[in-house]
Here is the input.
Amino acid sequence: MYWTKSGAAYPAERMADPRMRFEGNLRLASTHSDAYPQNAEHIFDLVLDDISEQSINPYGPLVLFFNLPPDDQGPGNWPCQVGTAITGLGRATELVYIEDYRNLHALVLNHLSPIKDLAQTYRRLRDHALAMGFRVRPYWRIALRRQRLADGNVFPQCEVSVFLDR
Here is the structure.
């Protein structure tokens, strides 16, 4: 199934329907970045090193968590948090802080375009949520995964989530 903006048929803008997903509660260990990071994996490794001495378990992919909707200025002007989900009672450090997000419901869509088009994917998810009658929370997430294929190659995946109030 496909949907388009305003219900109009734009063949060039066809995309798969977003998936609704219950995320539950999220405890995020992250550090601040003033803009979309050029090397998110390096920052992610710094976060993992900083929390490695604590009795917590990181899980899941590298996460970029944005506290404000994207503007039209581009990713170089989007402050965000770079980190991962954790279990356990982590302690904040000079580099890493711990935040809890409760009762998360999300619309999720894989992003298959360049980074500069992330705002467009966010807007499509937001518009879809509003059309379904949901209120959209101000924060959103990008999960960067690497899936190993059967032939041994790594396939990068970028998943955008917009969080909803029910």
User: Anything to note?
Assistant: The mean pLDDT is 86. The domain at 2-6+17-165 is CATH 3.20.80.10 (Multidrug-efflux Transporter 1 Regulator Bmrr; Chain A). Residues 118-131 form the longest helix (14 residues).
